[in-house]
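WARN retry 2 of 3 for item q-0093 after timeout on previous attempt; input resubmitted unchanged.
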Amino acid sequence: MKFNETSLKGAYVIEVDKLIDDRGFFGRLWCENELKKYNLNTNIVQSNMSLSKKKGTLRGIHFQKSPFQETKFVRCTKGSIYDVIIDLRPDSLTYKKWFGVKLTENNHKMIYVPENFAHGFLTLEDNSEVYYFVTQFYNSEAEVGIRWNDPNFNIEWPTEISEISEKDNTHLDFDIKNNL
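OK item q-0093 returned
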């Protein structure tokens, strides 16, 4: 596994270190020992997947507030997505900064999303499938959202958003006092 820290401290893009031969390749997607070398949370309690039928589908941007913050390991297993994370740690040097990465079924990359980060993604192809592990059980009362075009963040999405839930499209502008 190759760990590439993003511009947001504590968040990583993780790549498969492929052992290639005539048959194809072998690579490790999960290794508690390697993850712990980077002090990453490995306490997985739930596994989720989503399928988005249409290119331009936006899911998110979500996080769970205290005491239900979750770490996520996100990988695209079919199609491709543009995955976005936002640092919501008030004491962080990158507070309210965002980072985006293209995850595809072919690049085999995964993003590590630490606690107190918001997360969302935009599909870049029809029938894109996303698989992710989380370190906290889902709690609907702790779920909070950030609108995809909130001027507090100015996220640059790589393609037009054509599908979005009413809930995700109507989140209010981010206000730290009301969200965390």
